[in-house]
UniProtKB/TrEMBL annotation, chain A:
One Gene Ontology cellular component annotation held by this UniProt entry: plasma membrane
Biological-process GO terms, alphabetical: phosphoenolpyruvate-dependent sugar phosphotransferase system
Domain of life: Bacteria
Record-annotated PTS EIIB type-2 domain positions: 1-99
Keyword field: Kinase, Phosphoprotein, Phosphotransferase system, Sugar transport, Transferase, Transport
Name this protein carries in UniProt: PTS fructose transporter subunit IIB
SUPFAM superfamilies: PTS system IIB component-like (SSF52794)
GO molecular-function terms, A-Z: kinase activity; protein-N(PI)-phosphohistidine-fructose phosphotransferase system transporter activity; protein-phosphocysteine-sugar phosphotransferase activity
Source species: Caldanaerobacter subterraneus
UniProtKB/TrEMBL annotation, chain B:
The protein's name in its UniProt record: PTS system fructose-specific IIC component
Keywords: Cell membrane, Membrane, Phosphotransferase system, Sugar transport, Transmembrane, Transmembrane helix, Transport
Signal peptide range in chain numbering: none
Native species: Caldanaerobacter subterraneus
NCBIfam families: PTS_IIC_fructo
């Protein structure tokens, strides 16, 4: 299982990075490969490449604002949630995506 | 695609607008306030001089605020085609006196208009023409007609009424409003409720009223300082991780970043959040009582020199921090004792 994520919050200073850190931590614990792109006040950090998106089984968008370049994920299994949900309950968010992925197989 | 949740869509659009407008307000507000600070209120009024030009420069950047927020609200709803009609709507909002409120409404209208225009299906050959010519022209035309001739004036009137109400607020009413802003700022520490209070303060800045943002600034620093203070005085109420977080939380708080206190709130929300809200409300009310005013974003200890009546903000912050720290220590102390009582009771069995 390989998933890619985008996190983004209005100020782009703290929540964006906390959500990213917690998603990464949770995925590691669950034995899932993950890459998280941060869209904060500095712009896009750790940008997902085309190849990474193509390889991903699913996409998590944890954002309180509209993210940039969402069209990259067209045709993918996507779940969207607020940034704070990804901070508080990253395992839950990842599990939700896994369920969706299984449904679409 | 599943059914669209318009409430969620609009909330996200407003937050996107706010997100993109922040740097403009930081730059414009600081440059404007700095020129007044350096050269004085009278010097910046003499046309053609450097002080005058610099103050105007800051003011023009601040003037971009409404078009930018409207543009990015619309962008959030309709993607790139939304940007031009959205900014156009914001421009009209400025001209018709709609201010910040006009910008929010105009941006939403532009976004929805573009969302529907984009649904017009055309032959693939003509898609380029649609994108290049039809979207911007038709979109700006429709949005312009709505804003200029239908809702521009009424919104201008509402905005003026709101601004006058805010300016006329005095004494206890002003302090109550400030206390609400402060409590909201501390409710979710940088989350949606905090951002709602922030957006309100932003709207006030746009109307040239700096008191709400000064109140917001005092409150948003309270959680970080209060948790650090409580953890310093009563270390046994906190886990090792929390004591570590406390060391960072006051630094973040000094920079005006409330998020440093989130680990505490997550670990024990029912104790921490109400305590911080009380402290934040106290901090804001005192700040407003003393007439502190801040017209630039990025509010923190570093913007104190730019703050009018900064003493009130400092006083509010200190008192608010002590109150929040006392309440949270007391509540945590109760919990701690109860836990220990249970332990002794179990040990006795």
């Amino acid at each position: 299982m390989y998933i890619v994520c985008v996190t983004s919050c209005p100020a782009g200073i703290a929540h964006t990075y906390m959500a990213a850190a917690n998603l990464e931590k949770a995925a590691k614990k669950m034995g899932i490969d993950i890459k998280v792109e941060k869209q904060g006040i500095a712009g896009i950090e750790d940008e997902l490449s085309e190849e990474e998106i193509a390889r991903a089984d699913g996409v998590i968008i944890a954002a309180d604002i509209s993210i940039a370049q969402k069209e990259r994920f067209e045709g993918k299994t996507i779940i969207e949630c607020g940034v704070s949900e990804a901070i508080k309950n990253p395992e839950g968010v990842i599990n939700k995506l896994i369920e969706e992925v299984k449904k679409n197989v | 695609m599943s059914k669209v949740n318009h409430g969620e869509l609009i909330r996200k659009a407003l937050m996107t607008g706010v997100s993109y407008v922040i740097p403009f307000v930081v730059a414009g507000g600081v440059l404007m306030t700095l020129s007044v600070m350096i050269w004085g209120v009278d010097a910046v009024k003499v046309e053609g001089t450097v002080p005058y030009i610099m103050k105007q420069y800051g003011a023009s950047i601040l003037g971009l605020m409404v078009p930018i927020i409207a543009g990015y609200i619309s962008y959030s709803l309709a993607d790139r085609p939304g940007l031009a009609p959205g900014m156009a709507a914001g421009l009209v909002a400025v001209q018709t006196g709609g201010g910040f409120l006009g910008g929010l409404v105009g941006g939403l209208i532009a976004g929805y208009v573009m969302m529907y225009i984009k649904k017009i299906k055309v032959n693939k050959t003509f898609m380029g023409v649609m994108n290049f010519l039809v979207y911007p022209i038709l979109g700006s035309l429709i949005v312009g007609i709505i804003m200029l001739f239908i809702i521009g004036k009424p919104i201008g009137a509402i905005n003026t009424a709101l601004t006058n109400w805010l300016k006329g607020l005095e004494g206890i009413n002003a302090m109550i409003l400030a206390a609400i802003i402060g409590a909201m700022a501390c409710f979710d520490m940088g989350g949606p409720v905090n951002k709602a209070a922030f957006t309100f303060s932003l709207a006030a800045i746009q109307a040239g009223i700096g008191e709400p943002y000064a109140a917001f600034t005092a409150a948003k620093m309270v959680p970080g300082f209060a948790m650090a203070l409580s953890a310093l005085v009563f270390p046994k109420l906190y886990t090792e991780d929390e004591q570590e977080a406390a060391k960072a939380s006051w630094v973040l708080a000094a920079a005006g970043i409330t998020e440093g206190a989130i680990p505490f709130a997550l670990a024990d929300p029912l104790t921490v959040i109400p305590s911080m809200m009380v402290g934040g409300a106290v901090a804001s009310a005192i700040t407003r009582w003393g007439g502190a005013s801040l017209l630039t974003l990025g509010g923190s200890l570093f913007t104190l020199p730019l703050t009018k009546n900064a003493w009130a903000l400092i006083l509010g912050l200190v008192v608010g921090t002590i109150v929040a720290a006392l309440v949270v220590s007391f509540l945590k102390g109760l919990k701690y004792r109860r836990k220990n009582d249970l332990k002794t009771a179990n040990g006795g069995n």
